[in-house]
Amino acid sequence: MRKILVLSPSDIFPPVDGNSENTYHVVKYLASRNILGVLLSRIFSQGGPVDISHPELTIRYCPASAFDRLQYKSFLVNPYYYRAADALMRDVGADIIQCHVLYTILVGYYLKRRHGRPLVLVQENAEYVKQVKFEAPGYVTLVLKWLEGFACRVADRIVAVSEVDKRHMVDLYDVPEDKIHVINHCADEEVFRYRADGRTEVREAWGVGQDDMVMIYVGKMDAPHNTVATQYIAERIYPVVSAQYPNSWFVIVGQNYEHLLEYKRDRLFFTGFVTSRKDESPNLADYLSASDIVIVPMDRGSGTRLKILEAAACSRPIVSTEIGAEGLQFTDREEILLTEDVDDEFIQLLLGLVKDEALRERLGRRAREKLLARYSWEREVRRFEEVYQGLDSERRNDV
After folding, report:
1. Quick one: average pLDDT of 326-345?
2. Which terminus of the chain has a smaller tally of CB atoms within 10 A, N or C?
3. pTM of the full predicted structure?
C-alpha cells in the first residue's frame, strides 16, 4: 500500500468551502486504498467531530498559535505546522507528499528536500488569475505569481480542478501539459438529493408559503466573488423579480455574511453557515431542496463551482453566468441556463423559470442526470492512482 501525507490548510470536519469539501472526499476515498496521514488546521474550523475513520488513517491538527491570525498565509511561515508535518511524515513513513492548496507548498517542498519524496500539488484554482480578477493590489498578485510559479516548478505532479485552470498554469508558468492532471470536484449524490421532507421543514422554518417562489445563492461570504454576487442579487435582481412576483424570496446561504447586512431586504435574508453533513438536519441539501431556483450571478471567480454541482445533485434548476459555471460540462438550455453577464438576459431567464414549472422540473432532472453521469467523488478520487503510478514509474526509471 502507498503511504501518503496529505497537508491541508483547513479543517474538513465539517467542510466549509469547496477546497475543504474536496479534501474531505479525497481523504475518505484514498483511506480505503492507502496508508494515509492527514494534517489539518483549526483555522476557519466549525469544530465538528471527525467522521472518517480507517485502520490505516491518521488525522492530526496543527497546534494553535499566534500564527493563526495570519489565516491561510500562516502556513508559509508557521514553525508549528512545519514541525507537525515532519513528525507525521516520519510516523507514516510517507512515500508521497500531497499539498492541498497553494499555501502548504513551502512545507511540502521542505519535506521533499528533507526526505527525498515526490510532491503532488492539488491546486483548487490558478490563484494568480483569481486575484487579478478580484483586482487585488499589485504587490499581492506579484507575490502570488512568484509563489504559484515556484509551486508549479517544484511539484512533481499537479492536480487541477478543471481544464480551464490547467490551461492557465500551462500558459502562465510554461508547465508541461503531462505534468498536470485534471481531477474534477464533485457532489456527493447520496447526501445531495432532493428531499421533500427537508423542503417542507426548511420552508416552514423560514415562514415561506407553499406557493411562494424561493431563489437561493450559496457561498462563503467573505470571498470577494460572493460579496459581489450578493450585491447583484440585492441591487439588480431582487427589485425586478419582487416587483413582478411579490411572493418571491431570496435566500443567501454561507458563513461570514455580517459585512453584507446592508443588502438585507424584506424577503431577502442570510442564513449563515449550513452544514453539508448527511446526519445533521436540516443540512445544505435540505436548504437547496427548499429552493425553487438556484442562481449564480457571478462576474468573477475561480475554483470548484461546487455550488452548481450540489444544486444539480438536488435536481434544482440553475441560472448562472458563464464564468459561474466555468469548467463544468453542463449544456446550456438543456441542463442549465447561462448568460455572459449579470444583465437583463439573466433576469429574463430567471423570470421565465419563475412562471414555467415544467421547465424548472426538466432542467433540474437533467442537471442531476449529468451530475450522476459525470461528477462522482469515488470515480474522480480513483484517478489519483494515475498520478501516483506516474510517480512510481519515474522512481523505477531513476533507480
Report:
1. 96
2. C
3. 0.88
